[in-house]
Structures are given as structure tokens and as C-alpha cells.
């Protein structure tokens, strides 16, 4: 998914919210007050968005965003379609398409698409038996995709940036676009080289690491194929407490189609109260560190793409493969046959498209294994050794004392 930009605006200086009589507001209280003001001043059933922009008290409009959250079906219907977003694709020198990707919805980024996800077998039965693999290094043998950003479909408030967001993760781990993301700008060729790292930790009695999520957390059944991750566990913990306290979720990760409505004042209060209690540990999360971590370190480079000389070949390819699609129609309107000058058409392509390459830099990987420096077996052996030593010393001492007493008695009897 990606985002778009908005225009300039006239903004009134907001009045600072009054603090409570006993002292200044906490950050959480101040944010809740900010949302409550917006709720009361705006008719959210038919909002005047110019007025909404003026009422915003934050430089990034984050106080408006929660009021714009849509249901999952709405996001899926209005977001980018995979066949349009993924303009071209190849993996290990084999052509692929959007059907190789697994679609999911994100409350912030809209429709997102995962390549090589183990969840693909659940959503596309029989399509792939196992994740795709490459046994060679280098750009030619990795994944390469051309992305259509389609800035014309952006909503200014919901899409404050242009481009795409990419998360690199193990196929058996759930994608995390909030904590692990790379932003790709239009008109760029982004090359990403991967290096795999595996960490194996010891369980009890050395650490409290785990392989499984708590059973009480709201994890959809189809996501049981994913392995445990501490970061993802904390997200499920938040959704669990929101469900328990407020009766709703604020993320699609838990499988909900509908999210907490910020158009209800009691819901706003409940969400911020739950958030504050999680922050001060009044509400706890059962999310110990994972016994196994499998992730990628990466290096990244970018260059301009496409060049003016590549544009004619790229546009011809698009016309041949996408002439009847919305994408082909868009390109036809932009190029107006062959009348547009080449450099202008190049500017159009660079403002709307991006190319991404992901490959392994090496087939070897770094393994970090935690090993017990003093195991229970060693403890028993050492205790036994010391006990044997002490028992031996005690036996020798007893013998020497007995020998001394016997000699003393014999000596006295002679006297």
C-alpha cells in the first residue's frame, strides 16, 4: 500500500485545552481531550473536510485519522487491486503475477500483498504446496516487481505520502508494517540485499522464552500457521484488552471487519484509558521473548527509474499486456498516442511507477545459539565430586584419629 499528498490550507490557531484543577494533563489525557473536541465540533455523518483540517491540532493530522477508519470490506473494495498495483513480476528468472501474492488489509496502508507467505496455501488452496525458494545469490535470481503507485486515486488525508511500503520478513512470520518497513518512492529502482540471521534461545530454567501465543489472545484460526513473534504478540495483547474493556478492536490483525468507532465519546474514553493502562502496566501482556528468531538484515540502494530511453519499450509492453485494463486506459490518456514528447512521458512514468528488487547477498547465514555454560548435569557431577572428596577426607581423618587413640592406649598400657 502507499499514500498521497495534500494541498495547502488556512489554519486557525487552536486554543490550548484547559488542564484539570489539580495539575497539567498527561499526554494520554490531552490526546483524548483533542479527540473529544473533534467529535463534538464536527458532523461526522456528513463532514466538511475543510473545516476538519482547520480544527486539527497536530501537524500530521493524526487526531483526524481515527475518525476516517473504514471497515475491512470497504478497504478491500476501495484499495488498490493486486493486478493493477503489481504491474510486472519475476522470481528467480521466472515470470510471476499478482496471483503469487497473498492479499491482506491494513487499517493504515489499505490493500497489501505478501509474496511467498505460508498463508497463501490457506487463501489459495492447491496453488502452491510450499513457499518458493531460490538457491542462487544476486539480483537476477531474486524477486523483482514493477509497482503502479496510481497517485490519482489517493485520498489526501488518508495518504499523506507517495510511494509504497515494504516489509521484509520470514515467510512463516506475520508481516509487520508498523515496526519493520521500507518506504519506496515513485521514480526509483530500489535494490535490497538480504542476509539471514537465526537466533535460538534456551528455555526453562534459563529464560522464559516461548514458541506459542497465549490461547486467550484473539488470533484468527487461519493465522495459526504463523510462528510466534514477541512484537506481534504485543499487538494481539492490545487487541485482547481492547475487546475485554471496550468491546472492539482498533486493528484488522485480530480478524475484525469493524473497528472501534471514534464517533462515540464513550469509545474514545475507553480506548485511551486502556492504552494508558497498558503503558503503565496496569494491564499486562503475556509476551515473553521468542525461543527462535529468524529474520533478515539488509542493505539498500536506490537509483532513478525508468530512464527516458527505457520509456518507449516499457509503454509498449504495457499496451500489449494491459491495453483493456484500467492501467492501460490510464497510460493511453497520458501518452495520447505518440504525440507526447519522450521526456514528458518519462516524467509521467517516474511520478507513477517504482521498481523493487529483493535478493540474497549470500547463501550462508548467521546463527546465534545460546548454550548453557553450567548445565544441570555438570552441577550434579560437581556436587558428586565434592561430596566424594569430602567423604574421603572425613574417612581418612577418622582413620587417623582412631590410629592416634589406639597408639595412645598402647603407649599408656606399657607405662
Question: If you had to describe this structure to a student in words, what would you say it looks like?
Answer:
The protein is of the alpha+beta class. 34% of the residues lie in helices and 17% in strands. Strands 1, 2, 5, 8, 9, 10 and 11 form a 7-stranded mixed β-sheet that branches. Helix 1 packs antiparallel against helix 7, helix 6 packs across helix 7 and helix 8 packs across helix 9. The longest helix has 39 residues. The protein is flat. The N and C termini lie far apart (108 Å).
Give the overall shape: flat
In percent, how helical is the residue content?
A: 25-40%
Quaternary class: single chain
Run of helices and strands: HHHHEEEEHEEEEHHEHHHEEH
Number of strands: 11
Query: Structural class of the helices, strands and pairings?
Result: alpha+beta
The largest β sheet comes out as: 7 strands, mixed
Number of separate helices: 11
Rg, nearest Å? 32 Å
Mean pLDDT level: 82
CA distance, first residue to last residue: 108 Å
* Beta-strand residue percentage: 15-25%
Poorly predicted residue ranges: 1-24
Write the layout of secondary structure elements.
Elements lengths: L26 H15 L7 H7 L16 H7 L3 H4 E6 L2 E3 L4 E6 L3 E6 L4 H4 L19 E6 L15 E3 L15 E3 L3 E13 L29 H17 L18 H15 L12 E13 L6 H12 L3 H10 L6 H11 E8 L5 E4 L6 H39 L1
Parallel strand pairs: 8-10, 8-11
Antiparallel strand pairs: 1-2, 1-5, 3-4, 5-10, 6-7, 8-9
Helix pairs in contact: 1-7, 6-7, 8-9
Amino acid at each position: 500500500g502507499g499514500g498521497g499528498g495534500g494541498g495547502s490550507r488556512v489554519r486557525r490557531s487552536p486554543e490550548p485545552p484547559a488542564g484539570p484543577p489539580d495539575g497539567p494533563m498527561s499526554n494520554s489525557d490531552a490526546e483524548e481531550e483533542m479527540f473529544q473536541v473533534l467529535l463534538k465540533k464536527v458532523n461526522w455523518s456528513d463532514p466538511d473536510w475543510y473545516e476538519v483540517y482547520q480544527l486539527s491540532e497536530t501537524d500530521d493530522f493524526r487526531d483526524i485519522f481515527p475518525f476516517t477508519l473504514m471497515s475491512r470490506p470497504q478497504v478491500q473494495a476501495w484499495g488498490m487491486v493486486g493486478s493493477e498495483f503489481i504491474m510486472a513480476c519475476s522470481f528467480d528468472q521466472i515470470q510471476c503475477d499478482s496471483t503469487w501474492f497473498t492479499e491482506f488489509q491494513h487499517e493504515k496502508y489499505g490493500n497489501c500483498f505478501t509474496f511467498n507467505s505460508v498463508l497463501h496455501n490457506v487463501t489459495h488452496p492447491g496453488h502452491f504446496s510450499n513457499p518458493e525458494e531460490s538457491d542462487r545469490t544476486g539480483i537476477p535470481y531474486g524477486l523483482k516487481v514493477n509497482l503502479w503507485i496510481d497517485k490519482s486515486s489517493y485520498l489526501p488525508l488518508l495518504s499523506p505520502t507517495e510511494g509504497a511500503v515494504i516489509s521484509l520478513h520470514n515467510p512463516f512470520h506475520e508481516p509487520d508494517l508498523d515496526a519493520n518497513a521500507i518506504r519506496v518512492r515513485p521514480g526509483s529502482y530500489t535494490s535490497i540485499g538480504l542476509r539471514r540471521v537465526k537466533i535460538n534461545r534456551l528455555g526453562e530454567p534459563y529464560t522464559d522464552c516461548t514458541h506459542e501465543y497465549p490461547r486467550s489472545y484473539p488470533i484468527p484460526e487461519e493465522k495459526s500457521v504463523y510462528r510466534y513473534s514477541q512484537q506481534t504478540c504485543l499487538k494481539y495483547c492490545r487487541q485482547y484488552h481492547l475487546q475485554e474493556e471496550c468491546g472492539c478492536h482498533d486493528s484488522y490483525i485480530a480478524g475484525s471487519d469493524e473497528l472501534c468507532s471514534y464517533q462515540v465519546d464513550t469509545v474514545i474514553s475507553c480506548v485511551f484509558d486502556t492504552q494508558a493502562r497498558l503503558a503503565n502496566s496496569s494491564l499486562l501482556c503475556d509476551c515473553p521473548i521468542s525461543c527462535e528468531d529468524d529474520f533478515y538484515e539488509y542493505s539498500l540502494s536506490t537509483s532513478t527509474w525508468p530512464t527516458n530511453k527505457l520509456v518507449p519499450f516499457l509503454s509498449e509492453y504495457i499496451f500489449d499486456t494491459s491495453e483493456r485494463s484500467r492501467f492501460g486506459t490510464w497510460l493511453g490518456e497520458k501518452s495520447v498516442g505518440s504525440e507526447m514528447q519522450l521526456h514528458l512521458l518519462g516524467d509521467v512514468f517516474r511520478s507513477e511507477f517504482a521498481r523493487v528488487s529483493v535478493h540474497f547477498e549470500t547463501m550462508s547465514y548467521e546463527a546465534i545459539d545460546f548454550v548453557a555454560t553450567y548445565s544441570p548435569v555438570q552441577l550434579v557431577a560437581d556436587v558428586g565430586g565434592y561430596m566424594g572428596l569430602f567423604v574421603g577426607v572425613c574417612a581418612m581423618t577418622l582413620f587417623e584419629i582412631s590410629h592416634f587413640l589406639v597408639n595412645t592406649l598402647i603407649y599408656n598400657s606399657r607405662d
